[in-house]
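Record Adenylate kinase, 214 aa.
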Amino acid sequence: MKIIMLGAPGAGKGTQAKKIAEKYTIPHISTGDIFRANIKNNTELGQKAKTYMDKGELVPDELVVDLIMDRFKEADCANGYVLDGFPRTIPQAEALDKALAANGEKVDFAINVEVPDENIINRMSGRRACVGCGATYHIKYNPTKVEGICDACGEKLILRDDDKPETVKNRLSVYHEQTQPLIDYYAKKNVLAEVDGTKDMEDVFNDIVTILGK
Ligand code: AP5
Ligand code: ZN
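=>
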């Protein structure tokens, strides 16, 4: 099963993609996580991506497309995947379709997690990310057992650089301009499903399972 998560920054794509990956035993591929891992390891790709990410801008399409095409070659992608943060522009979506079509494949579901802009800033300012394993939490909606410490690996939690309110505002306008057109793109391909992302995390997940099937 090949699934795409659509939605504004902070809509809960990563939160739901992780649950989908566990339930359907497919890999969760987050381009944002891959970039953050490269920044942490100070790779050339990480250095390039950081200049865009810190401003809330998108990383150039060719960098992202090359990265994702390499990721698809790994063995764990054989039965599909859940893509979180890719595609984010029409050219990225077209590159994905072209690569899939070359193998007679296509996207099965594009799930749009809908959350109004008013809720987004609140979510982002409360999000905390683990410096060790990248797990994300929320100080109010998904707190850790011990404040500031990751439940999964015991490392400390931080506020992402791009989760500061000024950058979030820019990420939202970039989203509306460059990523929102993908909703129509996938609607026209009859693979779009919409879920109300303002519900509790578990309720959102149940709605997604209803769409994907048990
Ligand atoms: P990326 O990491 O993909 O960021 P994003 O799309 O902005 O998404 P987020 O990770 O911020 O949010 P999310 O929707 O996953 O929400 P989450 O589940 O964490 O990308 C970062 C940057 O990398 C981009 O700005 C760009 O520069 C670059 N990049 C990445 N991919 C790219 C691409 N393809 N092309 C070009 N550039 C690219 O949830 C948010 C918070 O809310 C959490 O604290 C969570 O606990 C909480 N929460 C989740 N669900 C609920 C709920 N139902 N109720 C209450 N709280 C909730
Ligand atoms: Zn951790």
